[in-house]
Automatic annotation (TrEMBL):
SUPFAM superfamilies: FAD/NAD(P)-binding domain. It comes from Heliobacterium modesticaldum (strain ATCC 51547 / Ice1). It holds the Pfam family NAD_binding_8. Gene3D superfamilies: FAD/NAD(P)-binding domain. Residues 210-231 are annotated as: Disordered. It comes from the Bacteria. This is Fad-dependent dehydrogenase, putative.
Length: 385
């Protein structure tokens, strides 16, 4: 067996770690100069998203021999709507650094892999098919899956973020549900340390977001021109939302004086594969559809797809069977995402009022599959919207 892994991200490196433990040394190809994305970001893994597993890091170390150190164990999640604030306390989950940072989860996994990573790779998927018996596509996006007609795009996302320097408590993260700053999406603040944090906005792009739906937007014709690059004078919608977010951040947290390493992404596809494996090609990570539509994070499922693709290659499991479970979680998350797109700012205010206190804290403490249950309840109503 001669295995190529295309992509040195969470899923590809996790796949390599498991293969090496059982005596198979894969060849890892990465088109960038180092592991990690183009910029440094913060992400959180909330335990509520993958019940019944209550501790993701313990699960990976005990069950699969994959070891990760978080930035912090999260003790509080502060959520702001337009007019309310709700504090959730307990074991929320973990925060992590992602991207080009020596303690990013990609960098930590790379240090657990023995095989050299071939950086600056120009190999295509077709090249690897000619040279290797099996190919694991872990490219971090859906491009190859889409080319093979094996990817369904449900919506596209725009994001803008930056690193902010100041004073932070790494055990506390913040989120905003406010359609004026992230329409039908959210904004967040995740500390890297006591001195630095990542803040960002993320929201679905048109056709989900129509200009008329967004209160306080620039005129629709300016939005269209800015989105299509037809004028240099009109601000891009994402820049308008970002400016509003910084003003809201100053009101809720304090003036963000030291902002650097600003980045933005547009048109990032969120979707899922139809088939986790075609012939001797495995689709893992974001190439499979590990990004959960509800909040956009997907570290847990990205790692699991790499792990279980490796077990399938070793003859120790059935990747299609495991992937079917992950696709069910994806579809449940998509139902909640669709419901979120219909919630007004007044609705977010009411939601936080309901969740404030014992109800909200119970959601984070219970081992029950809260999101799966919520999706089943919401599904009939979503079809009517």
């Amino acid at each position: 067996m001669n295995v190529a892994i295309m992509g040195a991200g969470l899923s590809g490196l996790s796949c390599a770690i498991v293969l090496e433990r059982y005596g198979i040394e894969p060849t890892i190809f990465e088109d960038r100069s180092q592991v990690g994305d183009r910029f440094v970001t913060g992400e959180i893994d909330m335990e509520i998203l993958h019940r019944p597993v209550m501790d993701m890091l313990r699960f990976f170390s005990k069950e699969h021999g994959i070891y990760l150190q978080p930035v912090a164990n999260l003790a509080k999640l502060v959520v702001f709507s337009e007019n309310r604030r709700c504090d959730f306390q307990g074991h929320i989950g973990f925060s992590a650094t992602r991207g080009r940072h020596h303690q990013s989860w990609e960098a930590q996994l790379a240090r657990q892999v023995r095989a050299p990573i071939r950086f600056h790779s120009k190999h295509t998927y077709q090249d690897l098919l000619q040279e290797f018996t099996h190919v694991v596509l872990a490219t971090g996006d859906s491009e190859y899956a889409a080319r093979l007609k094996n990817f369904r795009i449900d919506f596209r996302v725009a994001m803008k973020g930056a690193t902010i320097r100041g004073r932070f408590d790494p055990q506390i993260v913040c989120a905003w549900l406010d359609n004026r700053i992230a329409p039908k999406g959210y904004a967040y603040l995740i500390p890297y340390s006591e001195e630095e944090a990542c803040c960002a906005i993320a929201y679905p792009e048109p056709p989900v977001n129509q200009p008329a739906d967004l209160p306080g937007n620039p005129p629709a014709h300016l939005q269209a021109e800015a989105s299509n690059g037809l004028t240099d004078k009109s601000p891009r919608p994402i820049d308008v939302f970002w400016s509003r977010f910084l003003a809201r951040y100053a009101r809720d947290i304090g003036e963000p004086h030291d902002i650097h390493h600003t980045w933005d992404i547009s048109g990032y596809p969120i979707g899922r594969c139809y088939y986790p494996r075609i012939g001797n090609t495995y689709f893992v990570g974001n190439c499979f559809g590990a990004v959960m539509p509800f909040l956009g994070f997907g570290q847990y499922y990205a790692i699991l797809t790499g792990v279980h693709a490796a077990y399938d290659l070793l003859g120790m499991g059935d990747y299609a069977e495991k992937a079917a479970q992950y696709l069910t979680c994806y579809e449940e998350s998509l139902v909640i995402r669709r419901a979120m797109e219909h919630v007004s700012n007044r609705g977010f205010d009411r939601l936080l009022w309901f969740l404030d206190g014992s109800v909200g804290n119970w959601l984070f403490d219970t081992p029950r599959d809260v999101l799966g249950t919520a999706a089943q309840v919401m599904r009939p109503f979503i079809s009517l919207l």
